[in-house]
Amino acid sequence: MLYKVPLLLSPQLEGGFTVTSPLLPELVTEGNTVEEALINVRDALAAVIEAYEDLGRSLPANMKIIDADNSLWLETLITAP
């Protein structure tokens, strides 16, 4: 399944980033770099999905991308010089 999850990457004073999601408050992870933090999101999301299933809770409907075989959703932030 393909999911669309808004993420907030917060730089930490000691270095690295903490990642949270306003849509899934249970999703919390971190990494020393942006790339590492985003890689860790996959495991954190899997844990949240498993917890929701164990509790009989549904994920927010707007997170699921139904036609994952024929479409790709991508949002990114880009800074211009």
Describe the structure.
With about 80 residues, the protein is an alpha+beta fold. It is about 25% helix and about 20% strand. It has 1 helix and 5 strands, in the order ββββαβ. Strands 2-3-4 form a 3-stranded antiparallel sheet, with helices on one face. A two-stranded antiparallel ribbon has the order 1-5.
List the main descriptive attributes of the protein structure presented here.
81 residues; alpha+beta; Double Stranded RNA Binding Domain; 3-stranded antiparallel sheet; two-stranded antiparallel ribbon; 1 helix; 5 strands; globular; TTHA1013/TTHA0281-like; Type II toxin-antitoxin system HicB family antitoxin
Mean pLDDT: 87
Q: Biggest sheet, strands in spatial order?
A: 2-3-4
Helix content: 25-40%
SSE order, one letter for each helix or strand: EEEEHE
- Describe the main β-sheet briefly: 3 strands, antiparallel
Structure annotation, total helices: 1
> End-to-end distance, in Å?
36 Å
**How is the CATH topology of one domain named?**
Double Stranded RNA Binding Domain
As a percent range, the share of strand residues is 15-25%
CATH class identity of one domain = Alpha Beta
Uncertain spans? none
CATH architecture name of one domain:
2-Layer Sandwich
Number of strands: 5
Q: Assign the structural class, choosing from mainly alpha, mainly beta, alpha/beta, alpha+beta, or little secondary structure.
A: alpha+beta
Outline: globular
Tell me the Rg in angstroms. 14 Å
InterPro entries: TTHA1013/TTHA0281-like
Protein name: Type II toxin-antitoxin system HicB family antitoxin
